[in-house]
Specification:
The protein has about 500 residues and is an all-alpha fold. It has 17 helices and no strands.
């Protein structure tokens, strides 16, 4: 039950084979869930979807394949990947076509084609990983990484094409009836629709690239700053031979993959942490691009969500207050990530980094009052987004955030010491107070308190799961991401103090 050996070769005669999906206990449960969901959806369409025989046959066939793949059928074969991709496309087309001859509850409930598309897309991702595992068994790690770089480029191009070209064509094919007078002006011709969707995909890619480049800079900060070296001057160089890395090899994520994880000059190994940090930072920027920016501020508390949302109405027709909040919060998350990397490397955070970030977080609300979302105290109005914050109110917000955050950090340090965790897993008290104070100065002292609650919950969970042996600074970053992603939701249950 705890794991499965996945040493599978393409020539293995068995029809049902070990798969990466079932290599771990969580994957076993996920596989069982997919199997049960697929069987239930297929049974419902068999019983109630007879009014539309084509759609019913397609759904039943897709459910049978999904159930077959969930138990490891044809794992590691190219044919399995192609079939899973076709099932996903078929389910998406059925969902977009809005099948009308079946009961409404069947077409819109958890048994809808959209659910089948989600399940088959998960299996398609597992197919890709299984095929990659089989192909990589007999090649060198360097060649495997170069192939991974090519796969990354192909996946990005495929997603760009799917969103920019595939979605407009599918919408055009399955658009029902002539447009009414109200929507006539909103309906775009197919070339216009393709151009608009390609623009959306390009803007989204640019935000990920921005995050990946910030992640590349964070690698430099985490490596040089504790050693007292400059983070502004000096080119990136190989840690083995010291030779400067050329610009073509310094592309975030892809540069490391194209080099096979080795220096072009001396062939010494380069740590995989560099592309991981770049990908993680790009993912954080992309996550809050969707959750906070183009959603119109859906995760921000005490702020009216923008009526017009999406890439067009928030980025192209720039809503600078929302963009400013997004960049300010990404700056906070990137700074915490850099601190996490230093603490993980057993460095104490440099004093100049602490002073610079706390000073910047304290004076930013004075310069840009709209960065304040939650007033320090209920008697002080936020002024919505009219930028009418008085300087004393902004100063009080910063001081309350710094003080409350430092107190929360001290409390977390005290509590972590009382949990009898291994001494090597305990984080420095000064660094903890800085981290919580920094979060309080950026988001408010109330957010520092809720961040403390999330961090304590993850600490107790880690203590219960692994007796604290795997606790580390990365859990604090996870707590901050969880807090920020659910900020509006949990603020509903928190009284404004």
């Amino acid at each position: 039950m705890g794991g499965t050996d996945i040493r599978t070769t393409p020539a293995e005669p068995r029809l049902v084979r070990p798969t990466l999906l079932r290599a771990f206990l969580a994957g076993e449960y996920l596989s069982l869930g997919i199997l049960c969901f697929s069987a239930a959806i297929g049974l419902l369409w068999l019983l109630f979807g007879t009014a539309s025989p084509v759609a019913s046959a397609a759904m039943i066939t897709g459910c049978c394949w999904t159930a077959f793949r969930a138990v490891g059928g044809m794992a590691g074969e190219f044919r399995a990947g192609w079939v899973s991709a076709c099932v996903t496309a078929m389910a998406l087309l059925l969902w977009l076509s809005a099948v009308r001859d079946v009961p409404a509850w069947l077409a819109t409930s958890w048994a809808s084609p959209a659910t089948l598309a989600l399940l088959s897309s998960v299996l398609f991702c597992c197919d890709v990983l299984d095929i990659r595992h089989v192909q990589n068994q007999h090649i060198t790690p360097e060649l495997r990484r170069r192939r991974d770089g090519l796969r990354v480029v192909l996946v990005v191009c495929g997603l760009f094409t799917l969103w920019g070209v595939g979605l407009p064509i599918a919408t055009e094919l399955y658009r029902q009836g002539p447009p009414d007078s109200a929507s006539q002006l909103e309906r775009m011709a197919l070339p216009q629709h393709i151009g608009f969707r390609c623009g959306e995909a390009f803007v989204t890619l640019c935000f990920f690239i921005l995050g990946a480049n910030i992640g590349s800079f964070l690698n430099v900060v985490a490596w040089r700053l504790p050693q007292g070296r400059s983070i502004v001057s000096g080119d990136s160089c190989c840690p083995g031979c010291g030779k400067s890395i050329s610009r073509r090899d310094n592309v975030p994520i892809l540069g490391w993959l194209w080099l096979g994880g080795r220096c072009r000059s001396c062939q010494s190994a380069i740590s995989s942490r560099y592309p991981k940090v770049e990908a993680l930072t790009g993912g954080i920027f992309l996550l809050f691009y969707f959750l906070q920016l183009i959603s119109g501020g859906a995760t921000l508390p005490l702020r009216t969500i923008n009526l017009y949302r999406g890439v067009l109405w928030t980025v192209m027709f720039a809503k600078w207050d929302l963009i400013g909040l997004y960049l300010y919060h990404c700056f906070m998350l990137a700074t915490v990530l850099a601190a996490v990397l230093m603490i993980h490397d057993r460095y104490r955070l440099p004093r100049r980094l602490q002073l610079f970030t706390l000073t910047l977080a304290a004076i930013s609300p004075l310069l840009f009052p709209t960065l304040i979302l939650i007033p320090a105290f209920p008697a002080i109005p936020t002024g919505s987004y009219s930028a009418t914050h008085a300087p004393p109110a902004c100063l009080l917000f910063s001081l309350a955030g710094l003080t409350g955050g430092a107190a929360a950090g001290q409390l977390f340090s005290w509590f972590s010491q009382r949990t009898r965790m291994p001494s090597e897993q305990l984080l420095p008290a000064g660094d903890l107070k800085w981290m919580f104070a920094f979060v309080g100065a950026v988001l408010g002292w109330q957010s520092a308190a809720t961040f403390l609650v999330f961090a304590l919950a993850l600490l107790l969970f880690c203590r219960w799961l692994t007796d604290g042996s795997r606790w580390g600074p990365a859990w604090l970053l996870a707590a901050l991401l969880l807090h920020h992603a659910t900020w509006r939701l949990h603020w509903i249950w928190i009284p404004t103090m």
